[in-house]
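User: quick one, sequence for these tokens?
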């Protein structure tokens, strides 16, 4: 989990952090596996495993002229695709305690506070936040906020933004996804860059919520096309086994999954990142564990542990 590896290893110890896909703390815990200065991701096809449900394998073959977001009745444009979703919905809020051994570093939260309209389409406003506690802030303050506007029916991204405040480091940027013409427009520091992207490309937040809708079992491997910081990469998630875990939010039967970023022919990652997701229709992340390395030495693990569940009926 390079986010925390860099935060503790290259950041606090040197006071000049090198963050990996800065922000989106919990999503980054899952997707960030290689240091930002060594990323060399190239575009990959979003080929889904053949044993996945048909609606997940389907890819649009229609021309751009036949895929429209023009408003229909009540000002709502027709969906570009429909993904069955019983995993999450409006009002869900997951709060996590982030700690290194006995040291409590702060909290993180994933929430869906409202539904907004983007390009005539209803979208979940998914927010990821992380903030350091008073003790941790005394020598390294963290205050991050990341947002994704994710299509309610298709569970792909229309817009992504992040505002990061990490020690002396500050940055903001926004990405707008043209899902009709398959383009991503990134605005940062007054500059704008455009990148061709695959159909239904995901940002780091929408990708994890899409993953939550999948039917997963030990032995499965899932592939999802992702965009981050002007790059495309193939996210591969391997499902290892089933396991029971205890957190402050309770006891959960979980699937143990491990993500990999497939780059230009190599798997690049530092250490292992293990995620426990509930083994039910919700696939909620309840524990995220990553080994901490400083200059090649293993210094224990960073853990994000589910502390509170709100807006999830049945929990």
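Assistant:
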């Amino acid at each position: 989990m390079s986010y925390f590896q860099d935060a503790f290893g290259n950041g606090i110890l040197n006071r000049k952090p090198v963050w990996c896909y800065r922000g989106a703390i919990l999503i980054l815990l899952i997707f960030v596996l290689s240091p930002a200065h060594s990323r060399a991701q190239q575009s990959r096809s979003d080929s889904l495993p053949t044993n996945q449900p048909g609606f997940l394998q389907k890819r649009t073959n229609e021309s751009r002229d036949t895929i429209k977001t023009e408003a229909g009745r009540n000002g709502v444009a027709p969906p570009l695709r429909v993904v069955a979703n019983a995993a999450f919905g409006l009002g869900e809020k997951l709060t996590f305690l982030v700690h290194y051994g006995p040291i409590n570093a702060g909290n993180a939260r994933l929430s869906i506070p409202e539904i907004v309209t983007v390009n005539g389409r209803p979208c979940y406003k998914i927010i990821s936040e992380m903030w350091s506690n008073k003790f941790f802030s005394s020598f390294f303050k963290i205050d991050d906020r990341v947002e994704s506007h994710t299509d309610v029916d298709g569970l792909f991204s229309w817009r992504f933004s992040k505002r990061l405040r990490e020690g002396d480091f500050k940055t903001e940027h926004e990405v707008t996804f043209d899902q009709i013409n398959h383009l991503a427009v990134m605005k940062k520091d007054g500059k704008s860059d455009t990148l061709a992207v695959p159909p239904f490309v995901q940002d780091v937040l929408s990708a994890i919520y899409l993953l939550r809708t999948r039917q997963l079992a030990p032995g499965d491997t899932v592939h999802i096309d992702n965009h981050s910081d002007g790059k495309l990469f193939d996210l591969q998630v391997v499902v290892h086994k089933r396991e029971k875990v205890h957190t402050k939010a309770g006891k959960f039967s979980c699937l143990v999954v491990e993500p990999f970023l497939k780059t230009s022919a190599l798997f690049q990652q530092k250490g292992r990142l293990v995620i426990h997701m509930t083994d039910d229709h919700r696939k909620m992340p309840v524990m995220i564990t990553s080994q901490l390395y400083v200059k090649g030495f293993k210094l224990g693990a960073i853990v994000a542990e589910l502390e509170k569940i709100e807006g999830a009926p049945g929990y």
